[in-house]
Amino acid sequence: MEITTKKSSIYLVIGFFLATILFDFLDKININNADVATIKLNRFSKLVFVLLSGLLCFFNFKLVKQQLIKLIIIAGLLVVIFTVVKPYSEDFLNYLIRYLFFFFVIAVFIIIKTKNLTNQLCSILFPLIDIFVVFNFLLIIYAFISNNNLFLTYNENRFGFNGLMLNQMQSPYMYMSFLAVLIYQKKTILFLITLFSCLMIGVKVLILGIFVFFLGYLLFIDKKHVIKKIIFLLVATLFVLFLFLNTPIFKRIIEQEGLLTALASIRDKHLIKVFSDISTTNFNVIFGCKDLSIFRCELEFVDVFLFFGLFGLIIYGVIMVNIYRECCDSRVSKIYFFTVTTMMFFAGNFFYFPVNTFIFMTCLFLLKTKEKEAYLSRSFLNIKTKFFK
Length: 389
Prior knowledge:
single chain; about 400 residues; mainly alpha; 2 strands; transmembrane helix; membrane
C-alpha cells in the first residue's frame, strides 16, 4: 500500500533542509563557544531522515519496487565489503554510515519522481532558498564588518565568512547549488547576492566551481560574444584567485611548500603520505583499505578508491552516471552536474558529508522541470551596461 500522505516525501525533504540549517548553526555555536554545551542535533536529524526514508520506502515499495531493489543490492554489497574484508573499527563504521546516507537520499527522490511531485517540491523550496540567501548574505556582511568568530568560515587567520553554514566542506556545494537554481529562475538580484556571498565564503574550490559552471554556460547556452566573455571570466577568476593567494596564510604556504600545495590546500601532501604508506598488507586494490591510518585525503574519487577500492569506484561511478541520465533534463542541470563532479575531484567531502549529497539531489530536482532555459545574458542580468559590445 502507498503511504497515506502523498506528499510525505516532500515534507521529509523540506524538513531535513530546514533542520540541517538550524542544527548545523547550533553545532557551530557549540564549536565556537566551549562554555556552551549543546546536543549535536544535526546528527539526530540525519538519523531521523534515514528512519523516515526507510518508512517511506516500506510503504511505497510496490510503487518503486524495481529501483529500490537495485539500491538495496548495491548498498548491501558495500556492507558486505565492510563486514567481510575490513577489520572492525569505529572510524571505518563511521565512514561506511556516511557513504550509505546517499542511498537513502536517492530512495526519497525516486519516490518524489515516481509520484510526480517535483513541481510541488519546487514551489516550496524556491522561496525558502531565497530567504536563506538574503539572510545569510546579511550575516556575511555583518561578519565582515565585526569579524565575529561565529560567522567565519575558518578562523581569524584566514579570509572567509560563511554565516550560518557549519564548515568549509559544506558551503561550496550548497552555494554552487543556490547559484544554479537562481540562474535557472532568472532571479537577478538574488543571483548577484549569492555570487557575492560565494566570493566572501573564501573557499578556493567554490571559485573553481563558479568558473567551470559559467564556462559551461557560455559554451552551451549563452553563446553570443562567447570568446570575449570567456576571456573576461578567465581574467576575473585569476584575479580573485590572486587575491586569495596573497593572504598571509597562503603566502606562507607558498614560501614553505610551493604554489601547488597552496592551491591544493596541502591535499597533495596527504596524497603522497597515503600512497607511501600503502602495502599489500594494509590495502586491497579491489576492496580498499584494511589497516591504513589515513584513508581520506579530500580528493573524492581517490577517497572512494582508498576506502572501497576499485569495486567502490565502479559502484559510485555507475550511480552517478544513472543520476545524470535520470535527473539531468535541462542544460543548466547538466552543467551543474559536471561542475559538482569537478569540485568533487579536486576537493572531496561530497559522499563523506551527507548534507552535500542531499543538496546535490535536491538541486537536480529543482532544475529538472523542462521549462525554457534561463540565460545568463544581459537580459537575465537586467543590467543596462553593455559589458561586451
